[in-house]
Design a protein that fits this description.
heterodimer; A: 164 residues; mainly alpha; Four Helix Bundle (Hemerythrin (Met), subunit A); 73% helix; globular; B: 466 residues; 2 domains; 21 helices; 2 strands; 1% strand
Chain lengths: 164, 466
């Protein structure tokens, strides 16, 4: 029951984020959405991820987003609804996609198939110790490989951010 | 120690990339040529060690990564594609005074990502590889920083991020269904697995530009700088297909019958859409983008066969990828050869009368287009023949008929530039650029390769069939 409440909250705040015309209001709704996600993670016993979500996304990254909005000086007027080419096509394919995924999911729930595999380790799987141990033993290789991805992202960010 | 040697072909690429980045930052006056030579030397080394590894055989890293023959062949193919993409961009970057170190480093990192996509046996490694190559591709799409290039970059980034999210969603469901991220994990919950696989295939279909997810391709390919488009059409596409191959072949118990008909539908829809949309394009770059969608449709046939005979499908797919890389790199190379210092000349009138102005260039362009259309005796013909034959052998007659009809349609638009080159009139007086040796070298290499693959495919096929 709690899950459905939180999930409803996430969906509503996400819709409000993209529906709002004022970009600052949008950003605030995004904070609410991220917080709701963090609560969901807590109920799933992923405490570390929940803390990261609040600290990094709702904290640091949101500050950056607000900075960008202020620097660009976006007023609500400039963000008018614009019609893009082939909009109906895009909307249509989006609806079909959503319907497909939801249909499949509901069909599976209907067939009573949605019994997930229980998390290993009971209630301690999401603690800092458990996640840290996993990262440095079982998933040590992907953990190291991510560094290359981050390096590429840094190079890309510098390249796109640099003036001509 | 042994593991280190086995993984050398994979590790060389990021090592050289980091070295080039460092040396480019510290020694600012180093010329583009020397960096280019370094990068190509690194790729040649990767190719060499890849071949050594191929001869030595399979080695597996603890759980997450496997270095088998497919991995080594992929590294070899990707190294060839990247080296060609680098050489072909020499004049393009030099004339526009674009920075070299980042360009080469991003291409090399993309090669590393492609290697991971071929080596991963669990979804985390596959996804990291995919993101590495994707991020590099987003940045490269916007490399010239003019309007269309930026637009291509943003479009690619947004669409790509969306596709990655879909893929991740699928991976999350996979974890829910099996309790593991290993590809070979047996599903505890069969129904959830269906949902997981549907989402994963959707995400991967975006990356290979299969039918309902192909809308980004023409815009991105047209807007990106020409050499980068050549890189997208060859290395990125090859890597995405290898990843899909890994996933489909690695899933325990295969995909099952339901997904077979889904793949058939995807394949036919993709090739039909690509060919029909390409028919009336005036821009050759955009036409080649649609043609790449059509070729993705042909390549999906291999995945239909995969459920019946993995070895046959793997060999047919790798051969097709190799053939597609050389012929499409060649076709883009001709356009790069024609493009001026400021502007790209990719419209049909721009190649009109090329047959008289520059017979050799027109001849190789004609060769590549014939090969893309699948005329014998070129690589494109043998690749298609082999693929269709493998589908025939397992009784997919209707699928093969659809593919053959599609090939016939494609002849029309591949012949349009040829007709323009030999029978068209000059539209405007434009002197041809002076000889561009690096591009010319790539064109010669690709042309020879296309003919060798067309005339004597047996050796390559024997290697790929392992």
């Amino acid at each position: 029951m709690i899950f459905y409440l939180i999930a409803f909250g996430i969906v509503v705040t996400a819709i409000l984020t993209i529906a709002s015309r004022n970009s600052v209001v949008s950003a605030l709704w995004l904070v609410a959405c991220l917080f709701a996600q963090a609560i969901l993670m807590v109920t799933l016993e992923a405490h570390l991820v929940a803390a990261m979500q609040v600290l990094l996304y709702a904290g640091a990254i949101m500050v950056l987003i607000l900075f960008v909005i202020m620097l660009l000086n976006l007023t609500p007027k400039e963000l008018k609804w614009k019609f893009i080419a082939g909009e109906r096509l895009i909307l249509g394919s989006g609806v079909i996609y959503l319907a497909g995924v939801m249909g499949l999911a509901l069909w599976i729930i209907y067939k009573k198939g949605a019994s997930f595999v229980p998390a290993a380790g009971g209630g301690t799987a999401g603690t800092v110790e458990a996640v840290g141990k996993l990262l440095l033993t079982k998933y040590a290789l992907p953990f190291e490989l991510v560094s290359v991805t981050l390096l590429v992202a840094i190079v890309g960010a510098i390249l796109t951010g640099r003036g001509k | 120690m042994n593991i280190l040697i086995q993984s050398l072909p994979l590790l060389i690429m990021p090592a050289v990339a980091a070295f080039i980045l460092l040396i480019g930052a510290m020694w600012r006056r180093i010329s583009g040529e020397s960096l280019l030579i370094m990068a190509v030397a690194g790729l040649v080394a990767a190719l060499f060690f890849g071949w050594q590894g191929f001869l030595a055989g399979t080695a597996s890293f603890p759980a997450d990564i496997i270095f088998d023959k497919i991995f080594y062949l992929t590294v070899i193919i990707i190294a060839i594609a990247l080296a060609l993409a680098m050489l072909v961009s020499y004049n393009y970057l030099a004339e526009r005074k674009l920075p070299w170190p980042e360009y080469l480093a991003l291409l090399l990192f993309a090669g590393f990502g492609a290697g991971l996509m071929a080596a991963g046996t669990d979804f985390i490694v596959l996804f990291i590889g995919l993101e590495t190559i994707s991020i590099a591709a987003y940045v490269l799409a916007g490399y010239t920083r003019d309007g269309s290039s930026k637009e291509a970059s943003i479009k690619y980034f947004l669409m790509g991020a969306f596709a990655s999210a879909v893929l991740l969603f699928g991976i999350a469901f996979f974890y829910g269904a099996t309790g593991s991220v290993l590809l070979s994990a047996a599903p505890i919950n069969k129904l959830l697995m269906v949902l997981a696989l549907a989402l994963i295939i959707s995400g991967a279909a975006f990356k290979v530009a299969a039918f309902p997810f192909q809308w980004w391709t023409p815009d991105v390919y047209e807007g990106s700088p020409l050499p980068v488009t050549a890189f997208f059409a060859t290395a990125v596409k090859a890597a995405a297909f290898i990843m899909l191959f890994r996933i489909v072949a690695g899933i325990s118990g295969g995909l099952g019958l339901k997904f077979e008909s889904l793949l058939i539908a995807l394949s036919v829809a993709t090739m039909t859409f690509g060919n029909l949309a390409a028919l009336f394009q005036e821009n050759i770059k955009r036409m080649l983008a649609y043609s790449s969608i059509a070729h993705a449709g042909y390549m999906l046939i291999a995945f239909v066969v995969l459920g019946k005979d993995a070895n046959l499908a793997g060999a047919a797919l790798l051969f097709y990828i190799l053939a597609y890389i050389v012929m499409s790199m060649g076709a883009f190379g001709v356009l790069i050869y024609l493009s001026g210092g400021e502007k790209e000349f990719c419209n049909m009138p721009d190649v009109a009368g090329l047959g008289r102005r520059s017979p050799w260039l027109a001849a190789v362009f004609g060769l590549f287009l014939l090969s893309l259309a699948g005329f014998p005796p070129t690589a494109g013909f043998v690749a298609k023949f082999y693929l269709f034959k493998s589908a025939m052998a397992h009784g997919y007659v209707l699928l093969v008929i659809a593919a053959v009809i599609n090939s016939l349609i494609s002849v029309y638009y591949y012949m349009r530039p040829v007709v323009a080159m030999y029978f068209g009139e000059f539209q405007q007086e434009r002197s041809l650029p002076k000889i561009r040796y690096s591009v010319a070298g790539v064109l010669i290499f690709c042309a020879i390769f296309v003919i060798i693959l067309g005339l004597a495919p047996a050796t390559i096929l024997a290697i790929l069939s392992h």
